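thread: overnight batch results

M.L. [08:02]
morning all. the overnight job finished for the chain we discussed friday. pasting input first so we're all looking at the same thing
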Amino acid sequence: MLSHEGIWSAIDALAERHRLTPSGLARRAGLDPTAFNKSKRRSPDGRERWPSTESVAKILEATGASIEQFVEALRAERAAPSPTPPAALPAIPLIGFAQAGAGGFFDDSGFPAGQGWDMVDFPTTAGIKQGVYALEVQGDSMLPLYRDGDVLIVEPGAPVRRGDRVVVKTTEGEVMAKILMRQSARSIELHSLNPDHANRSFELAQVEWIARILWASQ
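M.L. [08:03]
and the structure it wrote out:
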C-alpha cells in the first residue's frame, strides 16, 4: 500500500542519489523550486499533500531514473525496519539566491526576517549560532566551487577577512557569493568563484550587508 510518507521518502532518496536538495530536484525537473519542500507536504490545516503523477514523471525524466527504480525505492521504504528516531537536528531558514534578492527576507544587518523562508536541518554537527541560515545555489555562476543545488550555510554579523568566502547583498538587490580580496574603510574588492565571471568592487555605501560562508554541502 502506498503511503504519503513513503512517496515523499522515495522522492527524497532520488534527490539524494543525484546530490540534490528536494528543491534542486524540483528545479531540474522544471517545477516550482518549492514544490517538494517539506513545508509543502501538508496543508496549513494539517492535511496530507501528495505529489502529482505529472511531477513524478518529470523528475524521473530529468534524472534518467525509471519507474521501476522509483517503485523499488518505495518498496525499500516499506521494508525497512523502523529505526530508533535520531536526535532532532536544529532547523535553520533556507532560501534560494534568486529569492534572496527580492527583498523582505533580511533585516538591515543581513539576518533572516519576514515570511517565505523554508526550513532545513542543519547538516553538520558543528554548533549552530543565532541567525545562521542557508542559501541554495541556483545556476552555474559559482562553478566550479559551488554547483546548482548546493546549500551554503551563512553566518551574518561574523567578522570577515581577506580570503574568506562571503555572500554580499548590494543596495540594488543583487546577491552574490564571492571571495573577499580587499576591504578598506570605503570599499571592498571581490574575487569571482567562476573564472568566466568578472571580479567585482563596490563602495561600502553600495553594500547592504556582507556575511561569511561557514560551510557548503558538496
